[in-house]
Amino acid sequence: MVNVGAKMDERMEINILDYRLKVMSIAKPAIERFTHALIDVLFFKSYLSGGCANNQHGFVSVTETDADYSVIVEEEAYKAFEGKSQDVKVNEQTWLPLVASTGPAMVVQNAAGISKIANSVVIPLADRGISVYPLSTYKTDYVLIQEADFDKVCEVLAQNFRITREGHLQSSEIVVEPTRVQKALPSGAGNSRALTHTFDCSDTNTYCMTSMDSKSLEPHGLAIIKALLYSGHQSEVQTSYFFNLSIIEQDISLILNVTLLNKFPAHLFFDNSEYWRLITIGDMPEGVGFRQAGIVAQISEPIASADISEYYISSFYYGHAFVPFDQFDEVRRLLIKKQNSQKAAAAAKLSNGL
Predict the structure, then answer these.
(1) In the chain, where are the structural domains located?
(2) When you count CB atoms within 10 A of the terminal residue's CB, does the N or C end of the chain come out lower?
(3) Are 309 and 275 within 8 A, CB to CB?
């Protein structure tokens, strides 16, 4: 067999991590009934052999928004939530997390976050009708794919990436037959790139993305749990609320507004001097859904093309794009311009049809 893309090995690589994940939503009024289960998956990991002693393993992310608590956990951890309440909704798919390394062919000059992999990963998958569920953290941008799409994902990305998949004991290279490799579509060829969902720029909060030493997690766990499970209900919190805590192996990542950040000890978190604004994608009650491809691409493409950093957090109902505070107005103008261009094109088409 031929290892497609071998000539690119030194530049770009995709690693599919050894996790099988479930994505679920917990209704906000019901969160107190799941506090114990959330504390366990975040800090103790009793579902793992060895529990919290195996602190280098594990994948969990909890995001609180105005709509719900969106939770990503390993399949074994999901058993603590499965069938316990009608207040828990779960996507039926199993998700696999992949990480793309950066190389000369995919690096945008200044941009960070999902913008680095928009043109090489997110957009090619969208053009082939493959939906993704991104999760940006302080250190890494994870792209979750549905296990059912695994072969198709490899066929799309093999042209430009060497793909490996982690196993229990060792990693193995994924080999794609040359005849099955899906070549990239010409720029602009993907119909899914149109803005098909509304975007909301009304959140006035200032956010920070930060991290902390894993040794600080246990002594400050109570304060973090309070922030995650209870701060959103406090009267002084502004109209919109967002908080994310992700613990993925040794990668501890938090996204929180500066008001909440200032309630923690100043020495607790790593550098958080960069400030971000939030753009929310999707409409309730259906949200953005899991089946439609291209939702991330339609937002990320104009941002990446403008060489602007973007961190993206998916939740059960919404997409959440974080852009630099001082470039927020520029991003908003880009998206509005794209939206207006679509409306004009649609009007012209309708007029010509008449």
Answers:
(1) 21-93+207-274
(2) C
(3) no
49: which 2 tokens? 């052999």
- Cα separation, 116 vs 121, in Å, equals 9
Q: pLDDT per residue over 87-131, tens digit each? A: 999 999 999 999 998 655 555 457 899 999 998 999 999 999 999
Q: How confident is the model at residue 350 (pLDDT cuts 50, 70, 90)?
A: confident
Crossing angle (nearest 10°) for helices 328-353 and 295-305: 120
Helix H, strand E, coil C: the string for the chain is CCCCCHHHCCCCEEEECCCCEEEEEECHHHHHHHHHHHHHHHHHCCCCCCHHHCCCCCEEEEEEECCCEEEEEEHHHHCCCCCCCCCEEECCCCEEEEEECCCCCCCCCCCCEHHHCHHHHHHHHHHCCCCEEEEECCCCEEEEEEHHHHHHHHHHHCCCCEEEECCCCCCEECCCCHHHCCCCCCCCCCHHHCCCCCEECCCCCCEEEEEECHHHCCCCHHHHHHHHHCHHHCCCCCCCCEEEEEEECCEEEEEEEHHHHCCCCCCCECCCCCCEEEEEECCCCCCCCCCCCCHHHHHHHHHHHCCCCEEEEECCCCEEEEEEHHHHHHHHHHHHHHHHHHHHHHHHHHHHHC
| Rounded CA separation 152/126 (Å) | 12
Bridge partners (DSSP) of residue 281 are 199, 319
Report pLDDT digits (tens) over 238-281: 557 899 999 998 889 999 999 999 989 988 999 878 999 999 99
| Single-letter amino acid code for the residue at 314 | S
Give φ, ψ of 24 to 5 degrees. -140, 165
Cα torsion 286, 287, 293, 298: sign: positive
CA distance linking residue 349 with residue 354, whole number of Å: 9
- The tens digit of pLDDT for each residue in 30-58 reads 998 999 999 999 988 888 765 554 455 79
